[in-house]
Amino acid sequence: MQWAAVSSQDVGAQPAVEVPFLEDWAGSGHADADAEAFRHWDEDDPQEVPARCAKCHSSPGYLDFLGVDGSEAGKVDSPAPIDTVIECVTCHNDATLHKDSVVMPSGVELTDLGSEARCMECHQGRASKVSVDGAIEEANVADADTVSEDLGFVNIHYYAAAASKYGKIAQGGYEYEGQAYDANFAHVEGYESCTDCHSPHTLEVLTDECSECHTAADLKEVRMAGSLVDYDGDGNLEEGIYHEIEGLQALLYMAMQDYAEEHSGTAIGYESHNYPYFFADANADGQISEDEAVRDNGYNAWTPRLLKAAYNYQLSKKDPGMYAHGGKYIIQLLYDSIADLNTVLSTPVDLAEAHRIDHGHFAGSEEAFRHW
Questions:
Q1: What is the C-alpha to C-alpha distance for residues 161 and 150, in angstroms, rounded to an integer?
Q2: CB 44 within 8 A of CB 38
Q3: What is the mean pLDDT of residues 165-192?
Q4: Separation CA 225–CA 221 (nearest Å)
């Protein structure tokens, strides 16, 4: 598929129409007509993007959702054709001009968003704490550690940046009862929305503007002035928030594998590139091989406790910018998932040197800041 500036030479002496930002957009993921996000349904019969996917994987589907095509707004009425991408008109139309709210998968409506609402409609994920609790309730499991064949993995989907950024307000993560969580990660003035930090056309992070405050050459090395504790307990207080989260991910993965061995009776492993991501580790070697990472080998020995932890693990893995979007919220989710698994492990994962929140004025999840 090729893109070019629109021309009206065929209708007389009309001047060529210059499409603003065309070159920027043409090199972005939104214009990549060969990407899996737009080609996934090529082998289906019929060749079409299902209504449940069309909103975010086709231009007609998004316009259908907005009601621009004359249909009822707020839902996709029918499958969309393949061979479309996210075009200019997808995001620039009469509906998006006035759109400033988004209903998250939890059912919570975020309002007064401004132009970032058009981004968040697709970058919100497809599941939430409500989804996980609903799956557990429907399975009617006896207790938190009973395996049920009626439980399956609940997947948040890809690039759920809004879930990370809006924290407990959106309820994108599995938040444990009795714990307090960070809410919207409010950055400095002028850098608080999607398009404050990303080009809306190339989608790239505006790193030159980040560098005005952050001196690290790699954004993964950024650590905020208020990050005075060792979140993952590895003794390194200089590493970036990205690496602190990596450390907690490793601890949670260890806890899930130990838990599966002790309580589920089937070893578990994770492969980020293959659906449904969690698989039975047939030889219990701690690794998921190519022949194990197949759909028919998807993990099927879920307990409610393991499902909650796996959901949070996946959320943290599928938002590549989680450390910038809402790092402290992600840290809390990972820490609490480990702590919950630890309550029933014969040898708990050591969290003695790890921390889930900051000290004093930097502990944004605490009652002094969350009371209202």
A1: 30
A2: no
A3: 95
A4: 13
**Which residue is associated with the tokens 């605490």?**
366
**Neighbouring-strand partners of residue 205:** 198
Q: With contact defined as beta carbons under 8 Å apart, do 274 and 364 qualify? A: no
Indicate the pTM of the whole model: 0.92
**HEC-encoded secondary structure of 15-64:** CCCCCCCHHHHHCCHHHCCCCHHHHCCCCCCCCEECHHHHHHHCHHHHHH
User: What are the sequence ranges of the domains in the chain?
Assistant: 20-98, 129-265+301-370
The pLDDT of residue 233: 98
Q: How far apart are CA 138 and CA 274, in angstroms?
A: 26
Contact 161, 194 (CB under 8 A): yes
What is the phi/psi pair of residue 364, to 5°? -65, -10
- What is the DSSP-derived secondary structure letter of residue 359? S
- Are the C-beta atoms of residues 313 and 230 closer than 8 Å to each other? no
| Cβ neighbours around 368 below 10 Å, total | 9
- The β-bridge partners of 49 are 80
| Separation CA 257–CA 341 (nearest Å) | 10
